[in-house]
Specification:
It comes from Punica granatum (Pomegranate). Its main location: membrane. It is a multi-pass membrane protein. This is Major facilitator superfamily (MFS) profile domain-containing protein. The protein has helices at residues 2-8, 10-17, 31-57, 60-79, 84-112, 118-143, 151-157, 160-172, 177-182, 186-197, 203-217, 222-226, 232-247, 250-255, 257-263, 268-292, 298-323, 333-351, 354-365, 368-400, 403-422, 434-437; strands at 458-461, 464-467. Helices cover 73% and strands 2% of the residues. The protein has a single domain, classed as Up-down Bundle (Growth Hormone, Chain: A), CATH 1.20.1250.20. α15 (257-263) crosses α16 (268-292). β1 (458-461) and β2 form a beta hairpin. The radius of gyration is 23 Å and the shape is globular. The longest helix has 33 residues, at 368-400. With 468 residues, the protein is mainly α. Strands 1-2 form a two-stranded antiparallel ribbon. The N and C termini lie far apart (59 Å).
C-alpha cells in the first residue's frame, strides 16, 4: 500500500514514483522490505526450539495457548507501529506465535486422529492456513481503498480476530492422550481417549500408547537420539520435505503476488484482486487433498503435483522471457490473464500436495520418543528456508528476471525424483507401527534398521518371543 510504503519504506516509495527507475523486475528490490517479511520466519526458527521443550514437558495445549498470546501481542504492536523498529518487533512476536503453533498443532492433530482419517484431519491445519491467506488478501484489497493513511493499520489489526480465537480455543481444547500418558497422567489419558474415540473399547490402543510412552521415557535426550542411525530416514525425509516445500517457490508467489502481477502489467488494484483469486484457488484446492490423501495416498498426490508445477513454471518463464523486458514493457491483456491462470494452476497443485503433505508426513513418521524433537527440526527447517526465500526473492526477481521460475522448476524436478525413489507411503498405517511396517520394508531405508537393538527388542516370556 502506498501509505504503508511511504511511512516505513520511503526509498521503495520514491523508487515507485520515479519514472527514470521503472524496471519491471527491480522496483521492489529492497533489503529492509524483505526483512520486514522474513523477520517473522527468523523468529519462528528460533522460537521452535523453546516450543519443542514446552510441547514435550507441558503438553500440546499450553504451546497453542502461548502461540495465541504471542499473536495478540504482535498484532497490537504492528497495528500501532510508529516506526520500522516497532513494526519489526511486532513481526518478531508474530513469528514466535507461528513457531509455537506450527510445533504444537500438527502433533495435536496427528495424535487425536483415528488412523483411517488421520491424513484428512491433519490437512485441516493447512486448510485453515489457506483460509487465512484468502482472508488476508481480501482484507488487503478492501483496506487498500481506505483514504487517510490508516488502511494498513486496520489490515494488520484485523489479525487480532484469529489470534483471539486461537487463544480462546487453546483454553477449552482437551490435551492429547499421547501427551497425558507421556507425562504419567494415565487415567486422564484414558478418559480423553475414550471421549475422542466415542467408545469404551479403547484398551488395545491405550496399552499401545502406554508402551510407546514407556520406551519414550527411556530416551533422556530426544535431540541426541534423533541423530542416531535408526532415526536417519525420518530425519532426512522431514528435513528434505521442508526444504523442498519452500523451493517450489510457493511462498515467493504468495508473499509477493501483487508485486508479481504488477511486474506483468496489472495495476495496483488489479494485482491485489489477482492475489485474492490465488488465495481462493489455494483454499478450494486444499479440499482436494482432504478428500484424496487417505484414498490415493501421499506419494501419488506429490508426484502428480510435481508434473503440474513444473509445466506451469516453465511456461510462465517462457512467456515472460519473450514478452516482458526489463523496462516499461508489459504483457498484453490476454497474456496477462494466461499468466494468472498458470499461476493458479501452480498454486492449486501445491495446495493439494506439498502444502499440506509437507506438514502431514513429518508429523506421522517419527516414533513417540523423538516426535517432539522431530517436529521441532521440521519446523526449524521450514522457517529457515522460508526466511531465506522471503529475504532473497525480490533481489532474485531483480537479477534472475523470468529465470526465477526456471530456478524453482528445477527444484520441483529434483523433489519429484526424491518422492519417486525415497518417500514411502504411510497411508492407513498407525503411527506407532510405521517403523515395522514402513522403514524395515523400504528398499533403501531398511539398511538403517538392521543394527542391533534398533527397532526390535525381544523379551522372552512363557509363551515365547514377543516383538515390541
Amino acid at each position: 500500500m502506498p501509505d504503508f510504503l511511504e511511512k516505513f519504506f520511503p526509498v521503495v516509495y520514491r523508487k515507485k514514483l520515479d519514472p527514470t527507475i521503472n524496471s519491471n523486475y527491480c522496483q521492489y528490490d529492497n533489503q529492509g522490505l524483505q526483512l520486514f517479511t522474513s523477520s517473522l520466519y527468523l523468529a519462528g526458527l528460533i522460537s521452535t526450539f523453546f516450543a519443542s521443550y514446552t510441547t514435550r514437558v507441558l503438553g500440546r495445549k499450553p504451546s497453542m495457548l502461548i502461540a495465541g498470546i504471542f499473536f495478540i501481542a504482535g498484532v497490537v504492536l504492528n497495528s500501532a507501529a510508529q516506526d520500522l523498529a516497532m513494526l519489526i518487533i511486532g513481526r518478531i512476536l508474530l513469528g514466535c506465535g507461528v513457531g509455537f503453533a506450527n510445533q504444537a498443532v500438527p502433533l495435536f492433530l496427528s495424535e487425536i486422529a483415528p488412523t483411517r482419517i488421520r491424513g484428512g484431519l491433519n490437512i485441516l491445519f493447512q486448510l485453515n492456513v489457506t483460509i487465512g491467506i484468502l482472508f488476508a488478501n481480501l482484507v488487503n484489497y478492501g483496506t487498500a481503498k481506505i483514504k487517510g493513511g490508516w488502511g494498513w493499520r486496520l489490515s494488520l489489526g484485523l489479525a487480532g480476530i484469529p489470534a483471539v480465537l486461537l487463544t480462546a480455543g487453546a483454553i477449552f481444547v482437551k490435551e492429547t492422550p499421547n501427551s497425558l500418558i507421556e507425562r504419567g497422567r494415565h487415567e486422564e489419558g484414558k478418559a480423553v481417549l475414550r471421549k475422542i474415540r466415542g467408545t469404551d473399547n479403547i484398551e488395545p490402543e491405550f496399552l499401545e500408547l502406554v508402551e510407546a510412552s514407556r520406551i519414550a521415557q527411556e530416551v533422556k535426550h530426544p535431540f541426541r537420539n534423533l541423530m542416531k542411525r535408526r532415526n536417519r530416514p525420518q530425519l532426512v525425509i522431514a528435513s528434505a520435505m521442508q526444504i523442498f516445500q519452500q523451493c517450489t517457490g510457493i511462498n515467493a508467489i504468495m508473499f509477493y503476488a501483487p508485486v508479481l502481477f504488477q511486474t506483468v502489467g496489472f495495476g495496483d488494484d488489479a494485482s491485489l484482486y489477482s492475489a485474492v483469486i490465488i488465495g481462493a484457488v489455494n483454499l478450494v484446492s486444499t479440499f482436494v487433498s482432504i478428500y484424496a490423501v487417505d484414498k490415493i495416498g501421499r506419494r501419488m498426490l506429490l508426484l502428480e503435483a510435481g508434473v503440474q508445477m513444473f509445466l506451469s513454471q516453465v511456461t510462465i518463464a517462457i512467456i515472460l522471457g519473450f514478452k516482458v523486458k526489463d523496462h516499461s514493457e508489459n504483457l498484453s491483456h490476454g497474456l496477462s490473464i494466461f499468466v494468472v491462470i498458470l499461476v493458479c494452476t501452480f498454486v492449486s497443485s501445491f495446495a493439494w500436495s506439498w502444502g499440506p503433505l509437507g506438514w502431514l508426513v513429518p508429523s506421522e513418521i517419527f516414533p513417540l520418543e523423538t516426535r517432539s524433537a522431530g517436529q521441532s527440526v521440521t519446523v526449524c527447517f521450514n522457517f529457515l528456508f522460508t526466511f531465506i526465500i522471503a529475504q532473497a526473492f525480490l533481489s532474485m526477481l531483480c537479477h534472475f528476471k523470468y529465470g526465477i521460475f526456471l530456478f524453482f522448476s528445477g527444484w520441483v524436478f529434483v523433489m519429484s525424483l526424491f518422492v519417486l525413489f525415497l518417500l514411502p507411503e504411510t497411508k492407513n498405517i498407525p503411527i506407532e507401527e510405521i517403523t515395522e511396517r514402513v522403514w524395515t520394508k523400504h528398499w533403501y531405508w531398511k539398511r538403517f534398521m538392521d543394527d542391533d537393538n534398533v527397532y526390535i527388542e525381544e523379551t522372552v516370556n512363557g509363551n515365547g518371543s514377543n516383538k515390541i
